[in-house]
């Protein structure tokens, strides 16, 4: 059950990162397709491992993302 919720949290984080890149940086989902085609897999596996080690990591990353992106 914990891995299911952490996976769901990871997908939400990834969606937020992609949405912010569209809104602010005008990046496309395939921006790194040629230069680093495995980027999404690398990020997903790294964040998943971090969440499995420390359950609060997903919330910490989300908080960090909003603080860095929206607080001026």
From TrEMBL:
<dbReference type="InterPro" id="IPR000823">
    <property type="entry name" value="Peroxidase_pln"/>
</dbReference>
<keyword id="KW-0106">Calcium</keyword>
<comment type="similarity">
    <text>Belongs to the peroxidase family.</text>
</comment>
<dbReference type="Pfam" id="PF00141">
    <property type="entry name" value="peroxidase"/>
</dbReference>
<keyword id="KW-0408">Iron</keyword>
<dbReference type="InterPro" id="IPR019794">
    <property type="entry name" value="Peroxidases_AS"/>
</dbReference>
<keyword id="KW-0575">Peroxidase</keyword>
<dbReference type="GO" id="GO:0140825">
    <property type="term" value="F:lactoperoxidase activity"/>
</dbReference>
<keyword id="KW-0376">Hydrogen peroxide</keyword>
<keyword id="KW-0349">Heme</keyword>
<feature type="active site" description="Proton acceptor">
    <location>
        <position position="67"/>
    </location>
</feature>
<feature type="binding site">
    <location>
        <position position="71"/>
    </location>
    <ligand>
        <name>Ca(2+)</name>
    </ligand>
</feature>
<feature type="domain" description="Plant heme peroxidase family profile">
    <location>
        <begin position="26"/>
        <end position="72"/>
    </location>
</feature>
<feature type="site" description="Transition state stabilizer">
    <location>
        <position position="63"/>
    </location>
</feature>
<dbReference type="InterPro" id="IPR002016">
    <property type="entry name" value="Haem_peroxidase"/>
</dbReference>
<dbReference type="GO" id="GO:0046872">
    <property type="term" value="F:metal ion binding"/>
</dbReference>
<protein>
    <recommendedName>
        <fullName>Plant heme peroxidase family profile domain-containing protein</fullName>
    </recommendedName>
</protein>
<dbReference type="GO" id="GO:0042744">
    <property type="term" value="P:hydrogen peroxide catabolic process"/>
</dbReference>
<keyword id="KW-0479">Metal-binding</keyword>
<keyword id="KW-0560">Oxidoreductase</keyword>
<dbReference type="GO" id="GO:0020037">
    <property type="term" value="F:heme binding"/>
</dbReference>
<dbReference type="InterPro" id="IPR010255">
    <property type="entry name" value="Haem_peroxidase_sf"/>
</dbReference>
<feature type="signal peptide">
    <location>
        <begin position="1"/>
        <end position="25"/>
    </location>
</feature>
<dbReference type="GO" id="GO:0006979">
    <property type="term" value="P:response to oxidative stress"/>
</dbReference>
<keyword id="KW-0732">Signal</keyword>
<feature type="binding site">
    <location>
        <position position="68"/>
    </location>
    <ligand>
        <name>Ca(2+)</name>
    </ligand>
</feature>
């Amino acid at each position: 059950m914990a891995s299911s919720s952490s996976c769901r949290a990871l997908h939400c984080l990834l969606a937020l990162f992609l949405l912010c890149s569209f809104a602010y940086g005008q990046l496309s989902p395939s921006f790194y397709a040629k230069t680093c085609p495995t980027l999404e897999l690398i990020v997903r596996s790294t964040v998943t491992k971090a969440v499995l080690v420390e359950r609060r990591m997903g919330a910490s990353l989300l908080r960090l993302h909003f603080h860095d992106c929206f607080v001026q």
